[in-house]
Amino acid sequence: MHIYFCGIGGVGIGPLAMLALDAGYKVSGSNKDQSEIAKQLELRGVAVDYLQDGQNITKVNEPLLPIDWFVYSSAVSEDNPEYIYAKNNGIKMSKRDEFLKVILAEKDLQLIAVAGTHGKTTTTAMLVWIFNQLDKRISYSIGTSISFGPSAQYQVGSRYFIYECDEFDRNFLSFQPQVSIITSVDYDHPDTYPTILDYKNAFRQFLSQSSEVYIWDNAASYLELGPNNKHKVSTSSTNISTLNLAGLHNRRNAWLASLVASKLLPDVDIAIIHDILNKFPGTSRRFEQLSENIYSDYAHHPIEIAATIQLAKEINQNIVVVYQPHQNIRQHEILKEGAYTHCFEGTSAVYWLPTYLSREDANLEVLSPTELMVSTSPETKTEYKEMNESLWQTILSHQKRGDLVLCMSAGDLDTWLREKIKLQLASQ
After folding, report:
1. I need a surface site. Which of 41, 102, 279, 399 has the fewest CB within 10 A?
2. Residue from 237, 185, 233, 231 nearest 208 by CA
3. How far apart are CA 355 and CA 328, in angstroms?
4. Pair 412, 298: CB distance under 8 Å
5. Does domain 288-427 have CATH number 3.30.70.270?
6. What is the pTM of this model?
7. Class (C level, CATH) for 107-277
8. Where in the chain are the domains?
9. Given a cut of 90, is residue 43 above it in pLDDT?
10. What is the dihedral of CA 128, 131, 134, 137, to 10 degrees?
11. Are the C-beta atoms of residues 112 and 127 closer than 8 Å to each other?
């Protein structure tokens, strides 16, 4: 079967393309930019087109091996030339969830889903890390790059499929997991869920579709869950002192991962699982150290921001943040809730960049950095910056002073930062 992935370099579609390769499918596709996942696929022999003008899909739709299925990301619009071509040529079309369900059924894999507003990427990777270190066969999909394997993998003989099952575009509602982890729940993705009630109801539906659920008490309380034998609720009084990872949120995520790993691997003592988790190397863009005193993190929600700053302060008391807000529609919601008021507390300075625009409502006024900056507490020292040489020199000055520079972004700040560090190293 020949699968064409439109948006093949994205964190949702890219890992799925890797799974398709492992499962024996012919894979081709396109992406808007040369992302890390796109590069990984090219190294595996996949020809990735970066124009998306319709010419590539026409070329690879060969008579002897025609495209059987066009899988596209949520960012692909109906006026995309490849989307139009697939539709006009009668090619089966779907988003990622439908194709993933086919792989799960074909390979007889039990779905272990990791969902939640924050922490699902890291928690998914933690579970994979446990299986990896114990030499247990596992299939999985993670929405980022990891140092101990590809972003996704199908292994022959594996029983479970560990999946970062995100709520955006209601993706997670397509599945009926054997076991689910809910890492945390806070209102997000207003472009998919217009109200908090919509968001809560989606999680409640997802839980009703899961055979067994592991969740913290604060998330269960937020969702107003009643007593249910399938809900395994960890309380705030739970002793997680055997987990030595930096950051309270990492220790809480690791606790849930250890409970599920212990269930899936009953022959392994939980103390061994905790020892393995204490050596967890982390993932890309989750408090990832790029250079001395310079870190990149994916945080773009006030709860994530506060949690990452708490983690950073376990390492260095002098924290400087470079922050790139993500999505204008999200900024309107954050501003309405006053959620920026306290999340930057404890920092020495916050350098505020323009909002990275993605999947926007053209009729919604773009909030300026000034409008967003004034919503922080009076104690927070904020300064408007742009991604230019001035910002880079500011970062370097803080680095030399010994400050921990925490660059937070779900946009292109991370790419810019890596390029700057690469050029710096090349010049030395």
Report:
1. 279
2. 231
3. 7
4. no
5. no
6. 0.89
7. alpha beta
8. 2-96, 107-277, 288-427
9. yes
10. -120
11. yes
